[in-house]
Design goal:
This protein is of the alpha+beta class. The chain is about 55% helix and about 10% strand. The protein has a five-stranded antiparallel β-sheet with strand order 11-12-18-14-15, with no helix packed on it. A four-stranded mixed β-sheet has the order 3-4-6-5. The longest helix is centred in the N-terminal third of the chain and has 40 residues. The protein starts with a helix and ends with a helix.
Length: about 775
């Protein structure tokens, strides 16, 4: 009898391995069909648009170069005006195993690697989803492969193509649910601990939402058996603590960083945002995300033309039809959980819970998609036991009602909700075709077989290709991106006291090389920017304040070097770069050095009393400080008033004079590297020294070896220096990094010991 059981288990393992291999193969083929044509068209490189080109390409490139040349330093001068390397790239790159696979290659090759890494991410997403679906449905076969394809190539994945790092999370999230299922089966909690470690290290923002999701999942999965519930809760807590501890090297400094980020102060209200008015456009938009294929976020066919909240959750071919079918038939844990998730999805307040109630993002919908896929797989396994036709009809009716409402708003209420009619018709047509195909396959009892899987793969590839095509419409060409790579590779740090006059979308010229600009397109350059933004009523937390928009501000930030493709007539050419028969020139303009002596200051409240267009000049004239630190500059600097000058009338002359004065009073022997910066100063009296460097928590400042502190000056650094000749050393140490590293070491050691003990016990039991 035991031998028969053993043979049966071996046979099940063989079947599972065979279907797993088929799943990987189908995901690979589908992904290759999607990406290879675009890679070939790009001459081997893959580009998209907007965030993908200026962030995803550049951030991984910069991290690659930094790890190879700048360690053990922790300050990156190429990101904005300078930023913490860990905090600046922890959210995007540092915890990604997919990114680390590219680091052995030269950094400039990343555009040629990223398309293939995308293929790998889709394959991993399919594989992890397949393993989860096999566990939760307790079977292996074509339905599980279909479910894996549905998850990996969902509308969420298609819409999120612009955000390359989102796919890391999609690929590895199913590991968390696998870990919970293993605990439910009374297996070791160590897999769950490992899954927590991987996802926590990967992306701290998504991990917080995942924790909330798996708490809900655990409650529904274990409810009804108090003993199993308490046991499972204890093991999940133990695994969670151990997993977070192993990820501490990135998680601890990241949490310290975001606690100082004002974006975390945004709150939704229970009373105002609990439920939507069914006639609001947002309601129609949420419906759209579940009913038709995911679209390019920057160019959508209906409701909102542009929207970046990740509102997409369509399941290739099946839509929500099979999930609705399951909910009609079943009232078990999965049916109830899907009902709860559906309510959350259409409640701005509840949905924002996955972002700690700071914003109504739909970034969590990939988790919703996996549960919808699980319900679909249950139906595919035994479609004869489910009212499939009813689910399809309801799905079609929802599409019709949604489409009627969208058209009504467009043509009856005269509110534009349709932006690309042909595109809308195509997407609705694909969706309807898929649902009708389900009815045909169900009629001939082919719904759970390989034909269904092939159809899902075909529609997944078609809709994803279409999304990439739309993303690339009117986008910057691949060759143009590669040209910028070539230019950036040639740019030199001409003088460490100054920066290049490149801002925001110029990531391609600053982050793909080793020079610094005066801005960046990123969400994580540093918390100093919120203090600077406040001075100019700038609200964007992604786009840096454009220094060139305000007279005097670019000069303050050291924007001296200018890159142009027009040969300057009067200015000397500092560097000449030729790319594909086009010549680029580096010239210079007037700007302040990064560090110089000042003898004035202005209070923040006084600066804010000035018109916006005058604040840059006033800030150049005198560093801006808060009233509560005024005593720290007393006796050294003179307080100035906004009424001291006619800033608008005297602007040009004043800027020119100030640049010259500060250049004459510059610090000397200035040097900057990945550990920070250093300089010397010889001042005739005790004086304040201003540095246009982000005043972030973590700077260790020493004057002749003695510790001192900086004063915040509108986000910049102001240091009080005694009379005489002195040496100043600035070293940046990421807050929480060392504590996090120690926690990681202890936790990994504990994990290794537990794995060893667990294996010994398993060997003894056999």
């Amino acid at each position: 009898m035991n031998k028969q059981i053993e043979m049966s288990e071996q046979n099940d393992k063989h079947i599972h391995a065979r279907y797993r291999a088929l799943c990987v193969l189908l995901c690979l083929v589908t992904a290759l069909v999607i990406f290879v044509p675009f890679i070939v068209k790009g001459g081997g490189a893959f580009t998209l648009r907007d965030d993908f080109n200026t962030q995803e390409l550049t951030f991984t490139n910069q991290v690659n170069g930094f790890l190879k040349t700048q360690l053990p330093g922790e300050w990156c001068w190429s990101l904005d005006l300078g930023a913490s390397f860990v905090n600046g790239f922890g959210f995007y790159v540092l915890g990604s195993p997919f990114a680390w696979l590219t680091f052995p290659f030269p950094r400039q090759l990343f555009p040629y690697l990223i398309g293939w890494v995308y293929v790998l991410k889709y394959v991993v997403a399919g594989l992890t989803a397949y393993e989860y679906l096999c566990i939760v449905t307790q079977k292996s076969g074509w339905p599980q492969i279909t479910g894996a394809l549905i998850y990996a190539f969902s509308g969420f994945s298609a819409a999120a193509l612009e955000f390359y790092h989102f796919h890391d999370v999609v690929a590895l999230f199913p590991l968390l649910l696998i870990g919970i299922e293993k605990i439910r089966k009374k297996e070791s909690f160590l897999f769950f601990a490992f899954a927590v470690f991987v996802n926590c290290l990967l992306n701290y923002y998504f991990f917080i939402g995942e924790v909330i999701f798996i708490v809900l999942y655990f409650i529904f999965r274990f409810w009804g058996d108090l003993k199993a519930f308490l046991r499972g809760m204890g093991l999940c807590i133990a695994g969670g603590v151990l997993g977070v501890g192993m990820a501490g090297v990135l998680f601890v400094p990241s949490i310290q960083y975001i606690l100082g980020n004002p974006r975390t102060d945004q709150k939704l209200t229970f009373q105002d945002d609990l439920f939507l008015d069914l006639k609001e456009p947002l309601y129609m938009y949420l419906m759209k995300g579940l009913l038709i294929p995911g679209e390019a976020m920057n160019s959508q066919c209906a409701v909102y033309e542009m929207e970046w909240n990740s509102t997409a959750g369509w399941l290739p071919m099946t839509g929500v039809s099979l999930s609705l079918t399951y909910m009609i038939k079943k009232r078990d844990w999965l049916g109830k959980f899907l009902l709860l998730l559906s309510l959350i999805a259409f409640s701005p307040y509840l949905s924002s819970g996955f972002s700690m109630f700071t914003r109504n993002y739909q970034r969590w919908w990939f988790m919703f998609v996996l549960v919808l896929a699980a319900a679909a797989v249950f139906v595919l396994q035994k479609s004869g036991n489910y009212p499939v036709a009813a689910g399809v009809v309801i799905n079609l009716a929802l599409i019709a009602l949604w489409l009627e409402e969208v058209i009504k708003w467009q043509y009856v209420k005269d509110v534009r909700t349709i932006y690309h009619p042909r595109r809308l018709l195509f997407l609705v047509g694909i969706t309807v075709m898929g649902l009708l195909t389900i009815l045909v396959l169900h009629k001939y009892r082919k719904l759970g077989g390989r034909l269904m899987t092939v159809c899902v793969s075909f529609i997944a590839a078609l809709t994803t290709i279409f999304t990439i095509y739309v993303y690339r419409i009117n986008s910057e060409s691949t060759q143009s991106i590669l040209d910028k790579y070539s230019i950036a590779e040639e740019l030199e740090v001409i003088d460490p006291q100054y920066r290049y006059a490149m801002e925001n979308n110029k990531n391609l010229l600053t982050l793909t090389g080793d020079v610094g600009g005066v801005g960046a397109f990123t969400s994580t350059s540093g918390n100093y920017r919120f203090r600077l933004n406040e001075l100019f009523d700038h609200s964007s937390s992604v786009f840096a304040l454009r220094k060139s928009d305000y007279a005097g501000l670019a000069e303050l930030c050291g924007a001296k070097f200018v890159l142009t493709d027009a040969l300057p007539e009067e200015k000397p050419v500092l560097q000449e770069i030729e790319v594909r028969d086009t010549k680029w020139y580096v010239t210079e303009q007037a700007a302040c050095p990064i560090g110089y002596m000042v003898d004035r200051y202005m209070l923040k409240e006084d600066l804010l009393s000035l018109p916006l267009e005058e604040r840059g000049i006033a800030m150049l004239y005198a560093p801006v400080i808060e009233k509560d630190v005024e005593g720290l500059v007393a006796g050294v600097s003179q307080k100035v008033s906004p009424q001291d000058h006619n800033w608008k009338k005297e602007g040009k002359r004043l800027v020119k004079e100030l640049v010259q004065t500060y250049s004459d009073n510059s610090v000397t022997d200035f040097d900057r590297n990945s550990e920070g910066m250093s300089c010397r100063i010889n001042n005739p009296k005790e004086q304040m020294v201003f540095f246009s460097v982000p005043n972030e928590q973590g700077w260790e400042i020493r004057i002749d070896g003695e510790r001192t502190e900086s004063i915040d000056a509108g986000g910049f650094m102001l240091v009080r220096v005694p009379q005489g000749e002195h040496s100043l050393q600035f070293r940046y140490v990421t807050p929480g990094l060392r504590a996090g590293a120690a926690l990681t070491f202890i936790s990994v050691l504990a994990f290794a010991i537990l794995v060893y003990i667990n294996r010994r016990r398993s060997a003894s039991a056999q």
